[in-house]
């Protein structure tokens, strides 16, 4: 069982990861406001036995809408509730900011989602540093220290509110007129420097107790939050060694706070482009690139390898005279790959197709090749999980129909869900309230 | 058409209005966490051509859970999203507080609900003064002035955010790669004393433009908010004259701010208990009462009419010797009715069954009698709308199957929906952004 990996899927407004995916054949250009698209994708992912659908979220319009749809537009609680009603097993994970919200609202909305989905909700608790998102909430950019101090208080308050309605409090004896054991429904009375809430919540635990807490965002502060509170972490390494390093740090952080590293899954962001042949996968990516802003991409590739490049160079290899002076830009960890591909004599278009400026590593090729890549990362010890970002949303079907069966055959992925809740999928125990032993480790926080 | 009334329905956690309704035969005692109950009720109300399902909301656990379920527990955005996916026409209205939330969240969640429901959302914008709800949000009780000043800024900010994405901004031309007209998607940059938001929102208008704004809560401050921003108002009069008075004040408030009184509907809260005979309706109410805390009710009836009463008196008329000194308690507008019924020699149990201490007037009796009551109020000019509160949720089916056809026959209620959006049902025009002429009347606010 421990050999098996965990998978979530992310769709970015329903189109898929590539910015121009909204123009891809078969993709509904109105996906960003169409809940049906998310429901259908979640049903596909559920057929593939994914652990969860994941909606990242930064509440700001950061794309240029002249040429690209808003990202993460349809509000996640609304989207996931729609999905919850029309799926049965797949987990439902959304980001909600500890900087911009109030714990009572987050505790209540995620618990409601957890109840409506019979125990399938997850909350990715992140701090917000995006200036535009902060301005939408009428505030400036808090310091990193402030953000994480608030995040700590915030997550503790949410978990305490969840725990304010204990297991087995519900009685619901109509004959006797006894609704609940009131001694098991009690205020939390938390008051910190940043947030306070009295409680109790008006909602009892779900089938999994409380939603699974995910953490994302790096640095020591992030690790402390993960170690103290989370059962899952989103990470975006560009290569295996940094993935392994982060997974080890997450496990260590859990141990530091007296929690089991076995109850931690690190989900590594991966983009997938699957086709019948490796060549077709590259061509698919070239076609997606061609629908977007190639000019900017070519210019940026030039910066990655330290040579001047423009759109006219798109179908030629980087000229030998330029290659002699090329060097990988140390500010961008993806630059060595770009330089290597240029050195192999690929055209600029083909270099780009390899994903040299994508936010995540690109697993491209045949279903077997994509499975190989995931297996290599997995067996290296990157933390058991992947957050799959299909290049365009139709890629999810290819992944489910072609890659998943290979992973299953290799014993790397479940054939059936073992249980019904997200906690079941992740192999973590029921929890309702703060982690056991939370009080003992409070000192370690500061 | 102007003869017709408008109807919303409210279920109070899915059980119905009476506190003991959770114990009523056929009612699921877990309704407060069961979205299916709300979906089914909404489908029933849609069959009856109701304008909307309404979820009032105060985010606090205010019942004694030993004997009664939490009220308004399942979070409204989650509940209404579930309902939206499984209904087609009925409006979806929820309360959300201007005191406890941030405009960006409210603007985004209600617009998402409006999009997912194809233009059926409504937002009941209220201030919060409940100390427990405020403590859940870590804050004390603001003054009435502060609350309403913030409410004003808050609603303006939400409407401005809705308007930040103009009509016809969406292009979605996949061939040309033009997603939207960026000149029609612009920041709002609102900054007041209480709330600020830059925007723009990442979501375009729905089929009705933006959600319908409802207002609730009395006094001059409430009227000003209604007059300036709302198209619908919730009011809870105990008798026709105060209902008429409030409806006139609402119409006047709209005119004051240059808005049409014809585009205002006042929904008056009414409890319904429908049965084959008036006697059966009273017996139904007695049975519901018997499942609750009769002791407290009897004692309170004593206070209403100024005589000592206890549970032992329940099946007797109020004794003649007591009646001689009885007087209606001036602090409770329902007291004259209680005194009148006592004077008629009804037993204490039967007096209570008339709803002498209910939060709304009780329309009880045969379908014809209930229709008569609604017609009488309606024709007196209470503002065209009723918020129907069935005593227990099964009462909604009686109302839809038995009362609605009578209202239709009398020409007092629609037989079919005329349109698809909540604005269509209410007969109000499309709106996206602040009301026309908003700027001209800002001075009138203070």
From TrEMBL, chains A, B:
GO terms for molecular function: monooxygenase activity. Pfam families: Bac_luciferase (PF00296). InterPro entries: Diverse_substr_monoxygenases (IPR051260), Luciferase-like_dom (IPR011251), Luciferase-like_sf (IPR036661), NTA_MOA (IPR016215). It is an enzyme of class 1 (oxidoreductase). CDD domains: Nitrilotriacetate_monoxgenase. Residues 35-382 form the Luciferase-like domain. Belongs to the NtaA/SnaA/DszA monooxygenase family. This is NtaA/DmoA family FMN-dependent monooxygenase.
